[in-house]
Amino acid sequence: MESLKINKINKTVNGTIQITGSKSETNRLLILQQFYPNLTIENTSNSDDSVLMQKALASTADEINIGHAGTAMRFLTAYFSVKEGSEIVLTGSHRMKDRPIKILVEALTFLGANIQYLEKEGFPPLKISGKKLTNDFVEIEGNVSSQYISALLLIAPTLQNGLKLKFKGEVTSVPYIKMTLQLLAELGIDYVWDGNLITVHPKPIIEPKTVVVESDWSSASYYYSLCALSPNSEIKLSSYKKNSLQGDSALAAIYENLGVSTEFFENAIILKNKQNFNLQPLTLNLINAPDIAQTIAVTCFGLGIECFLTGLRTLKIKETDRLAALKTEIEKLGGDVIITNETLLLKSSLKINENISVGTYDDHRMAMAFAPLAIKVAIEIEDAGVVSKSYPTFWEDLAQISR
Questions:
Q1: What span, in angstroms and rounded, lies between the C-alpha atoms of 174 and 159?
Q2: Is 216 a catalytic residue?
Q3: Tell me: the pLDDT tens digits for 34-74?
Q4: Model-level pTM?
């Protein structure tokens, strides 16, 4: 898809949107389903990442290309390591070949895996020869990507003696690790998290089980942003739970500070713009929910308030360097942004430049995070089709509630 010009939305945003299942939950369950075929998954994500994961798991090819799908690269590296008798080359896009995987490969190798780098040391593509892993203990830094840790936890119950995973230093991205462990628990797999040690017990077979995937909270963030920027707006989103496994469910509390209330129903939420809300500068540590940083920064820019976001170190190794991309694009629109390796300071400003073409950097979240600014000004989103990575129907859904 080429650039998409969005005219200024000259109306209050209202409507109901059904968002498909969480990409994070879906991808974890798809791996577990390979080990436990009597697991049934409902409300799966329709994102590119989840579709790619399903295709990769069903593939009989010698080489699998997972494009930009970082989660798939990490989870499949662990999965193919324990798939006895398989030999696979796992590769991806040009950007994927620049995304580090050494920490996970070293941990798997320590457990006994057979993995080789085919190009640059520490990066994909990888040649993986699946085998039985006999070791049951590994140590890993606590501040690494949660996807490395989850990849190890997903294969843990299939190992003969289970797995003891010890963290060195403080653990970050705790909600994503908890999500993985809670999904294991739903399948009857026992684990203990005591201090800096997670112990997962072996579980060769499970009872038949159906898991309904909760809708994706990251995808909900763009509607929170629309609601914050659109007076009198009211948006209903389904299917969501108050007791969510997803760290991005912090949105409900965060957006209270940006003038949006959240009402929980049985399987839906209603977002409402709180009229004449007294906005204040916002300071947040997003260590547990870095994927919503772009949305929050753009919302604050649209509202004309200052925000200081910390805990963003992992954003530099996503689809793009998201901190640098945010600075560049917000400044094109007239904002003032200062970034470090893990923080972003947006200064307050009242002016938004019109008809600016926003670059998306092969990053779905850049496209969707900036779209709500159409409440304020006409805007153009480059390579708008990039949203398919996590939310293929985003533009149709946006049009539906802003007609």
A1: 23
A2: no
A3: 999 999 999 999 988 899 999 999 999 999 999 988 899 99
A4: 0.82
